[in-house]
Amino acid sequence: MPDRLGEAREVKFRDPELAGELGRTLVSLVDDIDRAPITLMHVCGSHEQAIAKYGLRATFPKALDVIMGPGCPVCVTDAPEVDEGVWLARQGINVATFGDMLRVPGTRHSLADAQSEGGKVHVVYSAAQVVSMARKDPSQEYVFYATGFETTAVATAAVLLSDPPPNFSVLSAHKYVPPAMEVVAQNPASRVEGFLAAGHAATITGYGLFEPMAEKYGIPIVVAGFEPLDILAGLVELVRLVRDKSPRVFNAYPRCVSREGNQPALRMMWQVFQTSSGVWRGIADIPDGNLRMRPEFECFDARKKFSIDASVYASEADLALVKDCICGGIMSGLASPPDCTLFRNRCDPQHPVGACMVSSEGTCKIWYEYGGRPDLSEAGRT
Amino acid sequence: MCLGVPGRILEIDDMTATVDFWGVRRQIRLDIVDVPCRIGDYILNHAGFAIRRIPDETIGDTLSLYEELLGSPEDDLMGADVRGELEAARRNGDA
Known about the structure:
heterodimer; A: 382 residues; alpha/beta; Rossmann fold; 3 domains; 5-stranded parallel beta sheet; 4-stranded parallel beta sheet; 15 helices; 11 strands; globular; B: 95 residues; alpha+beta; SH3 type barrels
């Protein structure tokens, strides 16, 4: 890339002094609490990638257990939602989606299966791109299979508010994260004592969104960025709030996140979408966890436009492997990938059983590639 | 992916910017970003939309992190995600 301001500045995540200081503070805070485990949950695939890639778990005190919750939008897209896309592709309709979505299993078939049968399934990087495709090919119908959390839903909304052509529509599988965090917070089986919230989603929603949740469930929430030191700094604040029994929200990513968030973007999102209840794959029915299009946008809502009926696939389910898959427990924070009998055995990135092994943001795939919770008990021994 | 990819604005036409990502140019919408952007600014792209303008003082650090990711081994997930985003842009041209 041409000229960059601040050339040759040392990368913050390589600042060993700051990392050492944060690490020591974390140990001292965990010592103050003096019990184990202290379980904290983050809800973002990029957080998990950074934690795993940079080996941060190896630096955490043993009593601190940092787990990933339902932070992968592709993973929580339920099989019947995938079936809807497969149904459309089998009708000869162009279905465009993000690359991660292609191999996510439906009840029986994935969008990749539909593509290999000759279905017109396209991989795109943006909803805006699908609008361009539809404009260039007005005699064909183009459906954007929309997945993603708030940040991506805003982009879909912006496209729908920019006068798209009549042969463009959206099949929304967008998810809204805060209700899923509430489901975890109120689950009596959950050990989660604090949340690390995703920085870029909070750029849009603002950290103020989490304040009622922190108060209602008595759980602290810290918004953190994605560089290793951002995550470490976020965890230090979160453990401090746990120690102080202070269930409030702290913004550890102030260079990007404000209390009120991006109001114009939020107005766009709520103009187009409304929340509705629905199943997040393997987890639960999440009240208000799905983002569905408002009736005013019915003419661009693929579910209305094509009267999708994917119920036919329900009877074709191959439950033999699926019943052993514990993706739901993993995404709820109740289990880790090594707890699953399929992990690394019959389930790997080449032959994924559950959605967590498909997406690059899925816990199982991340742990498969980078390793998960390191066992350093033997380290240094001779 | 939540990480997004940083790029530098080369041109602006109303709500659409031409953005350079390590030599790959693509059209990025500016509808969402809440700070006015100008030519030469760096933005963070998420799914074809700028979600924020990168403050001048953090540009160097941000680009260094991504360059480290781009140089990571082929099977590295974070690196693969960033490379995948750029590859998608290259494949899809300026659609």
